[in-house]
Amino acid sequence: MQQEKIWDADAAQRYDTPGSGMFAPEVLGPTVDRLAQIAEDGAALEFAIGTGRVAVPLAGRGVPVTGIELSLPMVEQLRAKADEATIPVIIGDMATTVAPGKYTLVYLVYNTISNLLTQDEQVQCFRNAARHLTPGGRFVIELWVPELRKLPPGQTATVWQSEPGYIGLDTYDVLRQHVVSHHFRFDETEQARLFRSPHRYIWPAELDLMAQLAGFELETRHADWAGAAFTAESRSHVSVYRIPTAQ
């Protein structure tokens, strides 16, 4: 499953869910608030900007935002909300594509660094973030914690969400540190729609080592965008990495 084929026109058209899911105010609001705070008076670069879920409201807060995005159909959906002058987008992958200028903030939300399917690509992503940042600039990553504790011996799948009309489950390949997320949506008929996406999961400690290799230091880690404490039971984290200022 290649990322550019996964995020095709059909996926892009179904991606936005205004007012619900990851577009719900209680989800999106704290995300934008925190990123605007971290950006301070500088510009922000979003890796995998997608349809502009975060970039559009962040730009509305007065933060200049540029994006990098691999999927043309996703950018087409973004263009219905903001033009190129408002939110410039460079087409390419987030591990190697370079955007013009320097930024105080680079951010990568909603588990998207795991879309890079090798450790080498993920390390390259950190290095790409570092090359875009001013001294003291920050790289913010939102990422889930692998739920391997839920896997009894011989089982390779976990159901991580089940609600009326939707079931989400992950199938794990622990040897390669890969997971495929399966999203089943259905109604009262016998038909269901399946969307799948592959990922390489990353433990927080491994993520920190990737950051060190790219010249970052961990500044903060919380369980959510509102600043809840990160614990052994946290299902995800928001990690802020900082490029040291010149000595």
From TrEMBL:
GO MF term list: methyltransferase activity
The entry's keywords: Methyltransferase, Transferase
GO aspect biological process, one term: methylation
InterPro entries reported for this sequence: Methyltransf_25, SAM-dependent_MTases_sf
Ranges of residues in domain Methyltransferase: 45-137
A Pfam family reported for this protein in Swiss-Prot or TrEMBL: Methyltransf_25
Name of the protein in question: Methyltransferase
